[in-house]
TrEMBL record:
Gene3D superfamilies for the chain: Jelly Rolls
Protein name: Cupin domain-containing protein
All residue ranges annotated as the Cupin type-2 domain in the record: 38-100
CDD domains for this protein: cupin_RmlC-like
Highest rank taxon of the organism: Archaea
InterPro entries in the cross-refs: Cupin_2, RmlC-like_jellyroll, RmlC_Cupin_sf
UniProt region (Disordered), positions on chain: 1-25
Any Pfam family the entry gives: Cupin_2
């Protein structure tokens, strides 16, 4: 059996990301899901590109601020204690707009944790 308590503030941010991303899956020894904590200042983006996944489902739980998610149908907005869910094959681009008053802090969960199945989306 294995149990882990992780203080997400103690996790070193991943380098070369458009915002602060802390990868939590490895520390918890999780192999079937990806868990990340994102903190994006006004004008920062969460992903590296507008994209979709073949198999992975994603959920973004907003801790503070307002998360914006661009989709082909329009932009979704979610504030604190709201959850955005994204099904496979659904293009998305999460960000904090430049005119936002505050950073957005989000916990993102994706399952299954699949390497290399992220595809750029060109509208």
């Amino acid at each position: 059996m294995g149990y882990h308590v992780i203080d997400t503030d103690d996790v070193e941010p991943d380098p070369d990301r458009p915002c602060t991303r802390r990868s939590l899956s490895d520390l918890g020894n999780l192999s079937n899901m990806a868990i990340n904590r994102y903190t994006a200042a006004p004008g920062e983006e969460l992903p590296l590109a507008y994209h979709y996944h073949d198999e992975q489902e994603e959920a973004f739980y907003v801790l503070s601020g307002t998360l914006h998610v661009k989709t082909p149908e329009g932009t979704l907005e979610a504030g604190p204690d709201h959850l955005v869910t994204i099904e496979p094959d659904s293009p998305q681009f999460a960000y904090n707009p430049e005119d936002a008053d505050d950073p957005v802090d989000v916990i993102a969960v994706g399952a299954p944790a699949v390497e290399g199945e992220v595809h750029a989306y060109e509208p």
